[in-house]
Specification:
Chain B: InterPro entries: AAA+_ATPase (IPR003593), ABC_transporter-like_ATP-bd (IPR003439), ABC_transporter-like_CS (IPR017871), BCAA_Transport_ATP-bd_LivF (IPR052156), P-loop_NTPase (IPR027417). The complex is a heteropentamer of chains A (about 325), B (about 240), C (about 400), D (about 475) and E (about 325). Chain A has about 325 residues and is an all-alpha fold. Chain A has one domain. Chain A is about 70% helix and about 0% strand. By secondary structure, chain B is an alpha/beta fold. Chain B has a single domain, classed as P-loop containing nucleotide triphosphate hydrolases (Rossmann fold), CATH 3.40.50. Helices cover about 40% and strands about 25% of the residues of chain B. In chain B, the strands form 2 sheets. A 6-stranded mixed sheet of chain B has the order 6-7-8-3-9-10, with helices on both faces. Chain B has a 4-stranded antiparallel sheet with strand order 2-1-4-5, covered by helices on one side. Chain B is globular. The chains are: A mainly alpha (about 325), B alpha/beta (about 240), C alpha/beta (about 400), D alpha+beta (about 475), E alpha/beta (about 325). Chains in contact: A-C, A-D, A-E, B-D, B-E, C-D, D-E. Chains C and D meet through helix 5, helix 6, strand 7, helix 7 and helix 8 of C and strand 1, helix 1, strand 3, strand 4 and strand 11 of D. Strand 13 of chain C pairs parallel with strand 3 of chain D, so a sheet runs across the interface. Bound molecules: adenosine-5'-triphosphate (2 copies) and magnesium ion (MG) (2 copies). The site of one magnesium ion has 4 residues of chain E, from helix 1.
């Protein structure tokens, strides 16, 4: 087994667009669930809207990349409104299923051939990178060292993603220590009580849904920046992954989601590296090909164990746990 | 029933009960009063196995019951009415009462008669869901549920809270009657006067341990107790 | 760029034995995992053949899992393979998955070679010439199938197809060709990759009372066909395509004797399928039941190895520069149909035109194959098919 | 376009493919007139596939078993042997082949006429791939029949292959299609059947949610588990079907018990919140799903008797024996469960525990025991749903449960969380919607209809159809 | 009222002259803060609230009493916009409240507490309190990210919160999660939180149920102080000592209707009220009634015993009929 290489390819995940995209979406989910108590299981929908908003704006409407990004944000706002108006009055567990359903509706609408002209149906969209790459401030060349070696485009995507993530984290940090955040946390605990104190619960929830949704959409954009937009990626499992990340890091924490994303992908990458290698040297009674399946079994098990032994998440507050419902 | 040097708490490292002692002889009616947050409810919950006991001993009929699960204690004839969340909101009143008798479903008809004798309102609305009841009505359901099982030891946490004055009086008299019928009763009350009027002996709990004890009358007239715990409003 | 610069320039230098490292991004897990074994067997067998021939190039394989867009296995697999310094990736099975990592591979200067992608989007992808594929064309297959259905006297055809590049492309081509013969496509219903029951589609198609139904899709065919048959449709009136022309046998719970299908590939003289089976059994201990895209995967690896020989290099860009030529795309190579012969010719400094198990393979400058041979098959009573054209 | 090559070779030459000495392909520039060349341009978004050389064997009718007559009849096949390119076709009148219809192919100085054979077939070989005119001699058609419009004499052209088929289907051509009403009724029955099996799974979800508050995403795998066990015992171990199903159900129950005893109970003991528990169930779902894939791979298996033909009952209603058994079983089981829930002590205890587990324990309910029973029951119901689902789709697949999980949840929510009858009503509505909505919606968004209705209904009844609002204060 | 051990309070004069005309159900008030007309709420066949006309006097303390299930809490819900009545109109300070959402009602200065407490469990007690303050600048989304805009105000709020907590004997728990409060402490928090907003009208639903009597007494003084500052109080309570002690006006509900109104002394003498609600034996020592201690049972005591026995028999019969 080549531990050096295993380390290298695992370490690459510390700074990868995928990690950043998931971290962004998980930060958005922290606003939704961690602080506002909204059981949003439709994060994949927000991400899809972000990614498609970006790609369609460029490909169909020829907008510059930054304007396309604003279209994504706008898309997230509109989706949050459409989703929120009928559902924010629902009980938490109802909301969960309705948001899953809404995200699936979004995905299916991007998949169907009805809008093929814009979405390219199940095949998804690609070839929208030029504008973003043209805006790259880094001259052509190779940057970084060891597992973190990138060409100018790869570096630009990462730097841009990290900037977005930093803004999102900062926003959450500021918001959640303000009275606004306090109201939100109050709503999480008992919205009727908050209502009785004269706060417009619906409006606060909607604001939270929109803010988290925008972060999700930006996650979608970062996700799409270095690759393509394929509808099949935005399934419920994407949402589940984001949830896992959130709970790994700690739901009502500022840095938890980003940390969770790191841990999640490092575990995924590590298992992917280690299992086939172990199978190859005979430490596992199976072929490297079977080890591929084993990885997901272990990812599932790891997830269960992590949550079981650290239910409040890495950065979460142990004290809260005594009182969870 | 005997509670010795009980320590218990919720959060790690923080003991709410700090060496509480309490004795209830067979057939006795014990009242517990004390300021808010003194640990009265915690004491009852600890006795009933709902809070982890960290030290000390609880014995019923001489046998230690520490660590027994609630449903085992019920099987030993201990009944409990918690202070809050004491009904099943999505069950009807009837079903709530049936749950009270979960381990002995046969006796239902007979016990129902007994219970509706105390709270007539309930008898008329057996099919209403407890979740839609008013605060006082819930309290009645909660009491009735515990009374259904015809326990040997009854733990009551503020049974009179939320009841209208007539009902409160009823409730106290009933508790007293039940007790006279041989049921050892331990009652936590904030309606301290009424409580002390009917109980055989009373304990004043403060900051996790028994600060005073004595017969009901003694406590009722003890100026210290009046000053610290009873207040003067009720004294006319 | 294309294979314009002469191969001679490299072959004049001292020739060392090349070690070509390929990584596979084929589905081992997820919804597409049924496509994995035949493709991996194709790759594995090719590697075995190449290494046994021992003609100036050794191939090492790093196996990787593409998973599907749902479980996102490719997310970690591709970086792992890239950090293991592979020269070329073989995969992915689905166009959608390839799209998601192609830019990454291109950025790393690694060649991507798919045995199964049919999406038109790759033709003009900004890929530095690093994307190639041996997948069969849906235009040609659609015409062959359309003609076959017309010749069978079908006037009203129903189509049920998978909503993705593969299904829509093939369905479109089939519809155009079949209608060009004077027939009518009376119902054409699509389904999504995740769908698990098809009775709504079946009911719509059957409501139009077609004489025959073309099923364009993959593994889910064994669910679609029984749905039609139990609703009263004749099991001998189906038409299949390369994605689902399997030796169904007992996996198809209803009889489809008399149904036909098309799949690319010439009629073979050696028993390629048996060799695949033997290889798979020896390596994995399990039976290989399906051969979809096995030939394409085999040819992909052989072409890569030949390109490495011709280029005397294993760099992605160098491989890419030679692939069109060794496939016969430059037009003056000598025809060969196996690695050993081709490698010998290349070592002698000659040009080759490799024709493989999946057809005559001739790349255009976009890396798309421009020739194919399509076989027509018919199912017998045991739900196993045999070739009926030669 | 000059560099685009097209390989044209006779079918026979394919057979010689592996003999490198025989020149087997002729390369010709692809004629500019051939339609698909438009797609050659790089930018063309439409299709990549241009320029395909083609080897179409199917052209040789002689190779097709279905048409031996052609091979016998030298005259009709005239010319077909000498040329690489062929026109062929069938002439039918009202679905009956017409014999002796004279067909003429004319173009580029080449002209040939043949008569159709008994099967209505004709075939003409031509020397080059060019445009020709095909003419039908209408005098050879039966009296009073003419070829509609200008198809009696039409331009014909080759595509990528060497064969061009031109069929003529004459006659009134009124196809009898299934009426809308009949389709509607048929789908209602399909929807009911689907809804009932959904209900089995949905009640399990509802029970577990109702008792423990857990939203169990691993329920999908419990559904799959039942089907896989039926597969293992019914197909692989070849037990009689009834026994296999029985064993599968028992094992499902054991599975449910094991999950509770091995996982959920310890976690409850630890005092985990509902959201972490939900995430655990997501992890469990992932792990189980891939365990299934590890063992049975990615392909679809069939249970014995799957795909049985439907029997016409009355009118447009067609059901297979399996459908009937399945619907019957579902109804009986559902009613039994509903009665169990509302009437029995344990059934009521499940709701009590759901409201307040601590108080339930204080009432003397052995909470763990009741929860265990609920898990076993839910697992058995899920297993049964899985087996029925394996017959309904039909097929057993490693991820078959996951794809209906959302529908199961939608059913539970629609009916009102935690109400058994609600799950039933919700499931039937969802089942019907999924099946019926495709009468109007494109099928690739067939779930969208059901999900939109879910959201709309919840707008007006936020507590679900049979759910109750909690009082305030 | 005798002096009490906790000290500070002096018996005060009750507000009088609140009404015009007879002190009958639905009578007019000189300066009503709430006026409700024909407000009715039905649950299935049950009429929980059916109020013809009700006015709540401004600047006074009004007690709403009545048997369990009389509809008091439901009326609160209706007035505050937490529930919609089937019919009726009602106004606060002359503004009609029909269709006004609950939070808006609260913003107008009409804040309520809940009978079944609603502590915000995973917020600290202090945060709970701060949430109660109104017109916080930092609650606007854009302002919230710029602490400079709200920091000073937040400090003021915090100071006030500490003050109130001390008064409610919750200061020691300020930093704890509200989830860790005892039942009575939750009641206290609920009430303290409502007072944070300095409402014009505070509606307390059984604020003292479960609160220790000694503490109750000091809190009542606080309420009286608030009244002096101009606040109007409407509260539901079953503790007659408390009603007598602070209420200026008492409204009696039974079976959804207002059955009596008036100053406490008068209302509590009302035979109908006594029959329906109080019982005639407020001052009987239960120890005597139950025979635990020897003593004068007295006429009232005997009556009580009889009454109870009758009630039991009647209800048993009724229940039996019902069950048939
Ligand atoms: N779940 C809990 N976690 C942590 N601390 C708790 C918890 N429940 C109660 N406490 C604390 O324990 C102490 C005693 O609470 P307990 O409920 O026993 O009081 P009590 O005497 O019943 O008061 P009351 O008369 O108000 O009901 C209080 O200080 C309370 O804050
Ligand atoms: N949502 C509901 N569904 C059905 N009945 C209800 C509902 N809400 C209240 N009720 C009934 O309306 C009546 C009035 O209830 P309310 O809570 O207003 O009484 P209350 O006067 O506050 O009594 P308490 O003093 O016991 O708190 C009760 O009989 C109650 O059972
Ligand atoms: Mg208490
Ligand atoms: Mg009330």
């Amino acid at each position: 087994m080549d531990w050096g290489q295993i380390f290298n390819s695992t370490a690459g995940w510390l700074f990868s667009p995928t990690t950043i995209a998931y971290a962004l979406a998980a930060t958005g989910l922290a606003v939704h669930f961690g602080y506002a108590g909204l059981l949003n299981f439709g994060m994949a929908g927000f991400m899809a809207i972000g990614a498609y908003g970006y790609a369609i704006s460029i490909l169909t409407f020829g907008l510059p990349w930054w304007a396309a990004m604003f279209v994504s944000i706008l898309g997230a706002v509109v989706f949050a409104l459409i989703l929120g108006i009928p559902t924010l009055r629902l009980r938490a567990d109802y909301l969960a299923i309705v948001t899953i359903a809404a995200a699936e509706i979004v995905r299916l609408l991007f998949t169907t051939q009805v809008f093929d002209e814009y979405t390219n149906s199940a095949d998804g969209l690609s070839g929208y990178h030029q504008g973003f790459r043209d805006a790259n401030p880094f001259p052509e060349g190779t940057y970084g060292f060891g597992p973190w070696t990138y060409n100018q485009n790869e570096l630009w995507v990462r730097v841009f993603g990290v900037i977005l993530l930093a803004i999102a984290v900062l926003a959450v940090w500021l918001l959640m220590r303000s009275p606004w955040g306090r109201v939100l946390k109050g709503i999480r605990e008992d919205e009727d009580a908050v209502r009785a104190l004269g706060k417009n619960v619906f409006s606060f929830k909607m604001q939270a849904l929109i803010i988290g949704g925008i972060m999700g959409a930006l996650g979608g954009v970062v996700f799409a920046l270095p690759s393509a937009v394929v509808p099949a990626t935005y399934t419920t499992s994407l949402t589940f992954f984001i949830w896992t990340i959130l709970l790994l890091g700690g739901a009502a924490t500022v840095f938890g989601p980003a940390l969770g994303a790191l841990i999640f992908w490092v575990i995924m990458a590590f298992l992917d590296n280690v299992l086939p290698a172990m199978a190859a040297v005979g430490w596992l009674p199976m072929t490297p090909i079977q080890a591929g399946t084993l990885r997901f079994i272990l990812v599932g098990v790891a997830l269960m164990l992590l949550v079981a032994f650290r239910p409040q998440g890495i950065l979460g507050n142990k004290r809260e746990l005594t009182f969870v419902k | 029933m005997q509670v010795e040097d009980l320590t218990a708490g919720y959060l790690p490292g923080v003991n709410i009960l700090t060496g509480t002692n309490l004795t209830a002889a067979k057939g006795e009616l014990i009242g517990i009063i004390g300021p808010n947050g003194a640990g009265k409810s915690t004491l009852l919950k600890a006795i009933f196995g709902m809070v982890k006991v960290r030290g000390g001993d609880i014995r019923v009929n001489g046998e230690s019951v520490v660590g027994l699960k609630s449903d085992r204690l019920v099987a030993r004839g201990i009944g409990f009415v918690p202070q809050t969340n004491n009904v099943f909101p999505s069950l009807t009143i009837e079903e709530n009462l049936q749950m009270g008798l979960y381990q002995k479903p046969r006796a239902y008809a007979e016990r129902l008669e007994f219970v509706t004798g105390i709270f007539a309102e309930l008898g008329k609305r057996l099919k209403q869901r407890a979740g839609s009841l008013s605060g006082g009505e819930r309290q009645m359901v909660a009491m009735s549920r515990a009374l259904m099982m015809d326990p040997a030891v009854l733990l009551l946490d503020e049974p009179s809270a939320g009841l209208s004055p007539v009902r409160q009086d009823d409730a106290f008299i009933r508790v007293s009657d039940i007790n006279k019928a041989g049921v050892t009763t331990i009652m936590v009350e904030q309606n301290a006067r009424r409580c002390l009027q009917i109980c055989d002996r009373g304990y004043v709990l403060d900051q996790g341990h028994d600060a005073y004890q004595g017969t009901g009358r003694e406590l009722l007239n003890d100026p210290k107790v009046i000053g610290l715990y009873l207040g003067t409003l009720g004294q006319d | 760029a294309s294979g314009e610069q002469p191969a001679e320039s490299e072959s004049q230098g001292p020739r060392e034995d090349q070690t070509l490292k390929i990584g596979t991004v084929l589905p081992q897990t997820g919804a597409l995992s049924f496509l994995g074994p035949p493709e991996e067997a194709g790759v594995g067998l090719a590697v075995q053949d190449i290494n046994e021939a021992d003609l100036g190039v050794t191939v090492e394989v790093e196996w990787g899992d593409s998973g599907d867009p749902d479980n996102k296995a490719y997310e970690t697999t591709v970086p792992r393979l890239l950090s293991a310094d592979v020269n070329a990736l073989v995969g992915a099975a689905a166009s959608g998955v390839t799209k998601l990592f192609l830019d990454q591979a291109v950025g790393a200067g690694v060649l991507t070679f798919s045995p199964a992608n049919t999406s038109p989007d790759f033709t003009d992808w900004d890929d530095d010439n690093l994307y190639w594929r041996t997948a069969p064309s849906d235009l040609l297959q659609g015409e062959v199938l359309g003609n076959q259905i017309a010749e069978d006297g079908v006037s009203n055809l129903g189509i049920i197809y998978l909503n993705d590049a593969y299904g829509t492309g093939l369905a479109k081509s089939l519809t155009e060709n079949f209608e060009g013969t004077g027939g009518t496509v009376v119902a054409s219903e699509s389904y999504n990759a995740g769908d698990t029951s098809f009775d709504a589609q079946a009911s719509t198609v059957l409501a139009a009372k077609p004489d025959a139904v073309a099923v364009i899709g993959f593994e889910e065919t064994s669910t679609i066909v029984p749905t039609f048959v139990s609703a009263g449709f004749d099991g001998s009136k189906f038409y299949f395509v390369d994605g689902n022309l399997k030796q169904w046998g007992g996996d198809m719970p209803v009889s489809i004797a008399g149904s036909k299908g098309t799949t690319p590939g010439p009629k073979l003289s050696d028993d390629f399928q048996q060799r695949l089976k033997d290889y798979w059994k020896a390596e994995n201990g399990s039976e290989l039941e399906d051969f979809t895209y096995a030939a394409e995967a085999y040819d992909a690896v052989v072409l890569l190895a030949l390109a490495a020989l011709a280029a005397n290099s294993t760099e992605g860009a160098d491989l890419a520069a030679q692939l069109q030529e060794v496939s016969g795309g430059s037009g003056d190579g000598e025809k060969v149909d196996n690695f050993a012969d081709a490698a010998k010719l290349i070592l002698d400094g000659k040009k080759v035109d490799y024709d493989g198990y999946s057809g005559p393979i001739t790349f255009d400058e976009n890396g798309d194959p421009t020739e194919a041979a399509i076989g027509v098959y018919e199912f017998g009573d045991d739900n196993l098919h045999t070739r009926i054209n030669d | 376009m000059g560099h685009n090559r097209h390989v044209l070779s006779t079918p026979k030459s394919i057979g010689k493919l592996r003999n490198p000495n025989v020149p087997r392909a002729v390369r010709l520039p692809l004629g500019g007139a051939v339609e698909p060349t438009q797609a050659v341009t790089r930018r063309s978004p439409a299709r990549w596939l241009i320029l395909l050389g083609a080897l179409l064997a199917a052209l040789t009718l002689s190779g097709i078993a279905a048409s031996p007559a052609v091979a016998d009849d030298g005259s009709t096949a005239s010319g077909s042997e000498e040329y690489d390119y062929h026109f062929s076709g069938i002439v039918k009148l009202d679905d009956k082949p017409l014999e002796g219809v004279a067909i003429t192919i004319d173009g580029g100085g080449f002209k040939e006429t043949v008569d159709t054979d008994v099967e209505g077939r004709w075939k003409i070989g031509v020397p080059e791939k060019a445009k020709y005119t095909l003419t039908v001699d209408e005098s050879t058609l039966p009296k009073g029949i003419i070829v509609e419009g200008d198809s009696a004499s039409q331009e014909v052209e080759f595509g990528l292959t060497q064969t061009k088929v031109v069929n003529l289907f004459l006659g009134e051509g009124v196809r009898e299609t299934t009426s809308f009403a009949d389709q509607f009724v048929e789908r209602i029955f399909n929807g009911l059947n689907f809804g009932l099996l959904l209900a089995l799974a949905a009640i399990g979800v509802s029970l577990i949610f109702g008792t423990t508050g857990l939203t169990n995403f691993a329920h999908a795998e419990m559904v799959t588990f039942g089907a896989i066990m039926a597969l293992v015992f019914g197909v692989i171990l070849n037990l009689p079907l009834w026994l296999a199903i029985l064993v599968a159900l028992i094992l499902s129950g054991v599975f449910g018990w094991a999950m509770d005893a091995g996982l959920w109970r310890p976690l409850r003991r630890k005092g985990l919140g509902l959201i972490p528990l939900m995430i655990v169930s997501i992890g469990l779902s992932l792990a189980l799903r891939y365990v299934f894939q590890f063992f049975i791979g990615g392909k679809t298996y069939q249970l014995p008797g799957a795909g049985a033909a439907k029997i016409e009952l009355f009118g447009p209603i067609k059901l297979s024996v399996i459908d009937m058994v399945s619907m019957g079983t579902s109804i009986v089981v559902l009613i039994a469960v509903a009665i169990w829930l509302t009437r029995t002590r344990i059934g009521k205890a499940t709701r009590a525990i759901s409201d307040n587990p601590a108080l339930a324990a204080a009432s003397g309910i052995d909470v763990d025991r009741v929860i265990r029973i609920v898990w076993i029951l839910a697992a058995v119901l899920a297993g049964l749903a899985g087996i029925l689902w394996a017959y309904f789709r039909p097929g057993v697949k490693w991820d078959m449960g996951m794809h209906i999980l959302l529908l199961i949840f939608a059913a539970v929510i629609l009916g009102g969380l935690g109400t058994a009858f609600g799950a039933l009503v919700g499931a039937i509505i969802v089942g019907l919607l999924v099946e019926i909505s495709t009468l109007w919606l494109p099928p690739d968004i067939k779930y969208v209809g059901a999900l939109v209705v879910l959201i709309v209904i919840l707008m007006f009844r936020p507590q679900g159809i049979l759910g109750r609002r909690e009082r305030l204060g | 009222m005798s002096s009490n051990a906790t000290g500070s309070s002096v018996p005060r004069a009750k507000s009088t002259g609140l009404h015009t005309g007879d002190a009958a159900p639905g009578c007019k008030k000189v300066d009503p803060i709430i006026v409700a007309d024909h407000v009715a709420r039905h649950f299935g066949g049950l009429t929980a609230v059916d109020v013809e006309h009700l006015e709540i006097p401004r600047g006074a303390i009004t007690a709403l009493i009545g048997p369990n299930g009389a509809g008091k809490t439901t009326l609160f819900n209706l007035l505050c916009g937490f529930d919609r009545p089937n019919t009726g109109s009602w106004s606060f300070n002359g503004t009609s409240l029909a269709g006004v959402p609950a939070y808006r009602v609260a913003r107008m200065g009409m804040v309520r507490t809940f009978q079944l407490t609603k502590a915000l469990s995973l917020l600290t007690v202090l945060e709970n309190m701060k949430l109660g303050a109104t017109k916080q600048r930092g609650e606007h989304l854009w302002a919230s990210v710029i602490p400079a805009l709200w920091r000073t105000q937040d400090r003021e709020i915090e100071a006030r919160a500490h003050e109130l907590l001390a008064r409610f004997k919750l200061d020691a728990k300020a930093a704890d999660y509200a989830a860790s409060l005892s039942g009575g402490q939750r009641k206290l928090l609920e009430m303290a939180r409502a007072l944070m907003g300095r409402p014009e009208l505070v509606m307390l639903d059984e604020p003292m149920a479960g609160v220790n009597p000694a503490l109750t007494q000091s809190l009542l003084d606080h309420i009286l102080e608030l009244k002096d500052e101009g606040m109007t109080v409407l509260f539901v309570e079953h503790d007659m000592h408390m009603v007598r002690h602070i209420a200026d006006w008492v409204v009696v509900m039974a079976e959804g209707r207002i059955v009596a109104e008036g100053p406490p002394e008068t209302v509590m003498q009302d035979q109908a009220v006594i029959d329906a609600y109080l019982g005639s034996h407020q001052d009987v020592d239960l120890g005597v009634v139950t025979g635990r201690i020897s003593g004068e049972l007295g006429e009232a005591g005997e009556e009580l015993l009889e009454e109870i026995e009758e009630a039991v028999e009647a209800s048993i019969e009724e229940a039996e009929e019902e069950n048939k």
